[in-house]
Design goal:
Elements (H helix, E strand, L loop, with lengths): L35 E5 L4 E5 L4 E2 L5 H16 L3 H10 L11 H12 L7 H12 L4 H13 L9 H8 L5 H18 L4 H7 L5 H9 L10 H10 L6 H15 L3 H11 L5 H7 L4
Length: 284
């Protein structure tokens, strides 16, 4: 068997600074509205009820083994006093076990030691089962596991990613899912950009934020017209997290095309919030 190394990059809610462009300010995530929808891919078949939040988890022997190890090792390493600090830092979005990032990395290596490389269904099973648990460290494990194996997914994995974005939504998981998982899927299949065109208008602010941030790592492959259109589509929103995402997405693209971003902001300054403008021009 080939050992799979899970490179942990989610933030430590006490010691690690927020990832670039993310914040810890409190905001209420809007509930997802809609009726049950069925999403079918070539390799996984997942029913997601976006109103109730229920999802059918694919069967997976690998997921069974991973979850058995994970739910044994993680709780044993918990620290209730540190957990209280983490809960406070993350504005009470979820309970924590109280495991710092270095410990979590080591534990995750142990959990995954000797496990085979997962397929798409295995990854969906691990992630959905992790997010069904209350403590945030399990969600971090899921996000990092998905990031590690994103090249294994078909376009049909997008509904699973959406389900995770809308589960216990906060910047610490959503931003990583947006840039590394959803972004990876769209990069592999540009036809999924049409789904992002729908996400940008979603009533759930975290889905809209994901649409804004999914091109963060695209650099010269960024669809600038789409990026600028998304920024204008949500420019009138008063939500802090959307305004911040507009500025962050523009700031990141400015590293590749500073003139385009500078011109876009100049032409639309009256439409963009001061926060978005400030973030976009921070390094220009």
């Amino acid at each position: 068997m080939i050992a799979v190394m899970c490179v942990m990059s989610t933030p430590d809610p006490v010691r690690d600074p927020a990832p670039s462009g993310t914040v810890s300010d409190s905001a209420d995530g809007a509930a997802v509205s809609g009726s049950a929808a069925v999403f079918v891919s070539d390799s996984i078949d997942v029913d997601v009820d976006v109103a109730s939040g229920h999802a059918d988890v694919p069967g997976s022997e690998l997921a069974d083994a991973v979850m058995s190890r994970l739910t044994t090792l993680y709780p044993a390493a918990g620290n209730p006093f540190r957990a209280q600090e983490m809960v406070a830092y993350m504005k009470g979005v979820a309970p924590f076990l109280g495991i710092r990032t270095p410990e979590r990395r080591a534990l995750s290596r142990t959990v995954l030691d000797g496990t085979p490389r997962p397929d798409e269904s295995d990854c969906a099973a691990v992630a959905l089962r992790c997010f069904a648990l209350p403590e945030r460290e399990y969600h971090y494990f899921a996000v990092d596991y998905l990031r590690r194996h994103v090249k294994r997914y078909s376009s049909g994995f997008l509904p699973v990613a959406r389900r995770l974005v809308t589960t216990v939504s906060w910047w610490d998981t959503v931003d990583h899912l947006a840039a590394h998982v959803v972004g990876g899927l769209v990069a592999a299949d540009p036809a999924l950009a049409r789904q992002m065109d729908a996400w940008i208008d979603d009533q759930d602010l975290w889905i809209a934020r994901t649409a804004l941030l999914h091109q963060l790592r695209f650099k010269e492959d960024t669809d600038a017209d789409r990026l600028f259109a998304y920024c204008l589509r949500r420019a009138a929103d008063t939500d802090f997290f959307l305004r911040k995402a507009i500025g962050w997405s523009l700031r990141e693209y400015a590293k590749t095309a500073p003139g385009e971003v500078r011109a876009f902001v100049a032409d639309n300054r009256s439409l963009l919030s001061p926060l978005s403008v400030r973030e976009a021009l921070k390094h220009l």
